[in-house]
Write a structure and sequence with these properties.
This is Polyhydroxyalkanoate synthesis repressor PhaR. It holds the Pfam family PHB_acc_N. It comes from Roseinatronobacter domitianus. The structure is a single chain. By secondary structure, the protein is α+β, with helices and mostly antiparallel strands. Helices cover 55% and strands 9% of the residues. The chain has a 4-stranded mixed sheet.
């Protein structure tokens, strides 16, 4: 497990080839995306300058997936991201996105359970199959995200209150950042 604690070091040579220092072989962007999906943290550095290029390459991976039709980010979100680079909000956007993804990882199973409880269609024939498909979708969507744990058991009726409390805390943090 100690191997997973430190990031996988990838070095970029002057030829722009990417070199995996653990396995001593060259890798592609798709290989790096696979490492990340498997839960590994990666760090990509320029061999000559020592500059950290991780952000640049992660953005390139996202852009390639988006351009192939594997869209995860809605146009509105992309537009808001572009706007955030030209406004005072840019200091808040990274923290907001990080907290949002953290909440998504922490509450993925609660979301599916609460949707089922709050939905009056739950009594319809076939609803359990639809719920199973939703859970499979969420599991697939979150596959490879570090920190995500599957929840097999049921949850208490306080889950919705917990989610509301977390949302309120997030709103409080955001309002404090804006001051």
């Amino acid at each position: 497990m100690s191997q997973d604690a430190k990031p996988l070091l990838i070095k970029r040579y002057a030829s722009r080839r990417l070199y995996n220092t653990e396995t001593s072989d060259y890798v592609t962007l798709e290989d790096i995306a696979g490492f990340i999906r498997d839960g590994r943290e990666v760090q990509i550095v320029d061999l000559k300058s020592g500059d950290d290029l991780t952000r640049q390459y992660l953005l390139q991976i996202v852009a390639e997936h988006e351009s192939r039709g594997e869209s995860v980010l809605p146009i509105d979100v992309l537009t808001d991201l572009v706007r955030s680079y030209t406004t005072q909000a840019q200091s808040v956007v990274p923290q907001f996105l990080a907290m949002s993804f953290e909440m998504l990882r922490d509450g993925q199973s609660q979301i599916v359970d609460n949707m089922a409880r709050a939905n009056p269609m739950a009594a319809m024939p076939g609803f359990e199959e639809m719920q199973r498909q939703q859970q499979a979708f969420m599991k697939t969507m979150m596959a490879g995200w570090p920190g995500i744990q599957e929840s097999e058991g049921g949850s208490s009726g306080d889950d919705l209150d917990d989610i509301k409390k977390q949302l309120s805390e997030l709103q409080d943090k955001l309002s404090k950042m804006n001051k």
